[in-house]
Amino acid sequence: MSAGTGRLEGKRALVVGGAGSIGAAIVTKLVAEGAMVVAADRNASALAGVTAEGSVSSAVIDIADAQSVADGVAEAVSAMGGLDIVVNATGISHQGRTIDEETIEGWNEVLAVNLTGSFVLVKATLEHLGEGSSYVFVSSTGAERGLPLNLAYGATKAGLANFTKGLSNAVAARGIRVNTVGPGLMAYPVRNDQDSTDRRVGRTEVVPLGRLGEGSDIANVVAFLASDEAGWVTGQNVYVDGGSLAR
Ligand SMILES: NC(=O)c1ccc[n+]([C@@H]2O[C@H](COP(=O)([O-])OP(=O)(O)OC[C@H]3O[C@@H](n4cnc5c(N)ncnc54)[C@H](O)[C@@H]3O)[C@@H](O)[C@H]2O)c1
User: pTM score, two decimals?
Assistant: First the structure.
């Protein structure tokens, strides 16, 4: 576990997608910084591995199902006695599908998780958040680039960037902040529950800092944005990509 500063002491965090590569690293980091954390995911068996670390409880949530989100949020709020930080680290991808291969059903499947999921999560959690609370959505550098072989994914991440800007203004008067963290090329691609092959070996040459991203690279920035140190940061899409977007 990475060293913490205690800057999230007393904060109560819900991390949806908490069983994923990036989500689990975020859970670990928030706990290390002193937060109480409920890790949520639709993958119950993977969640068990995350909560085995101790001091983390879990809730099974399918973010594409509004009732499941409402039930899981109620469970998390009851377990922690409230809520201050909401992180959405879920995500699915249809990497490799051409425009001829992608279907309307496939498009809607990606939108339901990657974009509508964040809206549904906000609808279920906003009433529980007070002054000093914050949302952090995990986005992607794909929000800024055309992705000809991942059209729905890119559209959802660009949509999430704009949702974040609008929502940040909508809830600013309540003292709630909203930001995204957008990973670049990571050591592990989005797995879609089954694919664990590393398709990116050998692509470090496109990353100016010369390596692929690790979960901790993303988690460190999420922890900062969720903390009071980022008290004047809202409506921002922060890319954590080893310099890739700047090329
Ligand atoms: N890995 C990368 O290369 C990369 C790059 C840029 C952005 N991202 C983004 O980071 C986020 C996390 O990705 P990751 O790499 O950890 O992927 P991952 O596949 O390891 O984790 C995603 C998690 O989301 C969960 N999930 C999927 N659909 C869900 C649903 N309907 N309800 C609840 N949980 C659901 C999965 O069970 C999984 O635990 C995603 O938003 C992804 O788009 C990843």
Answer: 0.97
